[in-house]
Amino acid sequence: MTPPLAPPPEPLWLIAANVVRWRRYGDGGQELRPGTKAYRGGAKVYVIGSRPGGHEQVTTVGPGRHTGAYITLDMATRHLHTFRAALVRSPAVLRREAENDAGQVWDGREEAEETAARLEGLAAELRAERWHTLPHPTPCLCHTCLTAAGAAGVTPA
After folding, report:
1. Domain residues for 115?
2. 83, 85, 101, 104: least CB-packed within 10 angstroms?
3. Buried b (16+ CB within 10 A) or exposed e, 101-114
4. pLDDT at 103 over 70
5. Where are the beta strands (DSSP E) in 26-136?
């Protein structure tokens, strides 16, 4: 006789974001690397919390670069963009959120949207100040340059 199936976990409002496609790296930010060491560029991840002391580091759950299996990882906020509120039903994400001590459940959609907007502004600010005194490489594919080129209707060289 098979045991009864456990009921699916209750959906939660979390914050979804995407990993930057390219990030500046190395001496003077003149090198570009795709995504991060753990996540592919463009990967969708879920923010499940942050460590005390600010939101410069957030705890994320998403598909790992090498295996595609979900991983939980603390990462720099500047490596994420397009923060948004998302009602999450994925058992894998919900299980990792429940197991993680950094878990932060937002109290509904409105609170998740407000936090997502704050994180979007903070991520842009952190990206800007990281290399603020140094020129961009040529051609530059960093998130700032890609979004500026896209807004202007220009294709990066």
Report:
1. 12-152
2. 101
3. ebbbebeeeeebbe
4. no
5. 31-34, 44-50, 57-63, 70-76, 80-88
